[in-house]
């Protein structure tokens, strides 16, 4: 396994960047809202994502697109828990995407093995105690406030430094609340209180975020910054979310090579291929270094001490 990625207690040790498939059980998500709102369809979709190469499936019942209003607790539970239960029973490794401790707790009891909280435990003071009590892995994402007004908070001097510092504070709060450091995963929060330039800077600066010492989850899938890149400028309308999957896979390959622990994506197959290619390139690079070191340490070989090239030097 790559030493760049790290390990998460309670989860498998993949030998490459893992792929987390998204199951939105919502009517209003920015990418596929309503498509998997029915429980049966959501479960089928989750299993399809596993068949396409997803290592985990992330089930969420509340849209966090910019401007989205929150759903109430009862509705979120109604949407999420049956899907989590059926996917877990079918053998899928399930993550629950929620900011509510009550939803996290019931999802874990239904079979979820990971809690993915976009607020990093800030939205609900009961979240960290629940995660600590159940000893499950916890995604701590960079977050500056609810979706309804998060775009107003996208103000940074040095976005990588500020995200790094704010994530460190969130990690420290989680650890102080009883969450094991070896169970924490970090997410830079692409698209959350960030403009396109901020997101690109974070992708470019991913190596700096490894200073936190925890595995990194990168969730770039179909997001606005990719639409802006593909549009080529602010004056051109970005392509629809579903037309950003190739760009998403490109980011998956890039961050996999930079040591990301996992990518969170809507369309799994292309990113599953991308992270496997990235891993193959890593292995080829490691083999080349090993071969080069081995060749330099030998004696009597061409170009080495006493070898033909050395002997020939005096006869030219």
Walk me through what this model shows.
Helices cover 43% and strands 11% of the residues. The protein is of the alpha/beta class and 316 residues long. An 8-stranded parallel beta sheet has the order 6-5-4-3-2-1-8-7. α5 links the parallel β5 (138-141) and β6 (184-187). The N and C termini lie far apart (49 Å). 45% of the residues are buried.
Give the overall silhouette: globular
Give the H and E element order.
EHEHEHEHEHEHHEHHEHH
Give me the number of helical elements: 11
Any idea how many domains? 1
The CATH superfamily appears as Dihydropteroate synthase-like
CATH architecture annotation name: Alpha-Beta Barrel
Biggest sheet overview: 8 strands, parallel
CATH secondary-structure class: Alpha Beta
The overall pLDDT, averaged over residues, is 88
- Which stretches of 5+ consecutive residues score pLDDT under 50? 299-316
* Gyration radius from CA atoms, angstroms: 22 Å
Strand content: 5-15%
Q: What percent of the residues sit in helical stretches (DSSP H or I)?
A: 40-55%
Gap between N and C termini: 49 Å
Widest sheet, order of strands: 6-5-4-3-2-1-8-7
């Amino acid at each position: 396994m790559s030493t760049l990625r790290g390990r998460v207690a309670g989860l498998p040790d993949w030998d490459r960047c893992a792929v987390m498939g998204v199951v939105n059980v919502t009517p209003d998500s920015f990418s596929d809202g309503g498509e998997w709102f029915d429980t049966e369809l959501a479960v089928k979709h989750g299993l399809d994502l596993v068949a396409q190469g997803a290592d985990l499936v992330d089930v969420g019942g509340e849209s966090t697109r910019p401007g989205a209003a929150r759903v109430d607790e009862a509705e979120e539970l109604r949407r999420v828990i049956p899907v989590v239960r059926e996917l877990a029973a079918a053998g899928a490794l399930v993550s629950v995407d929620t900011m509510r401790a009550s939803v996290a707790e019931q999802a874990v009891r239904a079979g979820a093995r990971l809690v993915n909280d976009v607020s990093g435990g800030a939205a609900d003071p009961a979240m960290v105690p629940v995660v600590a009590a159940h000893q499950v892995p916890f995604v701590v994402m960079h977050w500056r406030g609810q979706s309804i007004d998060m775009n107003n908070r996208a103000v940074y001097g040095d976005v990588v430094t500020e995200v790094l510092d704010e994530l460190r504070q969130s990690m420290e709060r989680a650890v102080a609340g009883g969450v094991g450091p070896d169970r924490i995963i970090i997410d830079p929060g692409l698209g959350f209180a960030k403009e396109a330039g901020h997101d690109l800077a974070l992708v470019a600066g991913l190596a700096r975020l490894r200073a936190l010492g925890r595995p990194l989850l990168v969730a770039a899938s179909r997001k606005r910054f990719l639409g802006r890149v593909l549009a080529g400028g602010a004056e051109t309308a970005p392509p629809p979310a579903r037309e950003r999957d190739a760009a998403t896979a490109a980011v998956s390959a890039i961050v996999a090579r930079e040591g990301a622990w996992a990518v969170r994506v809507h369309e799994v197959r292309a990113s599953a291929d991308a992270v496997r290619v990235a891993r193959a390139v890593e292995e080829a690079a490691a083999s080349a270094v090993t071969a080069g070191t081995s060749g330099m340490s030998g004696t009597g070989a061409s170009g080495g001490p006493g070898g033909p090239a050395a002997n020939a030097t005096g006869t030219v």
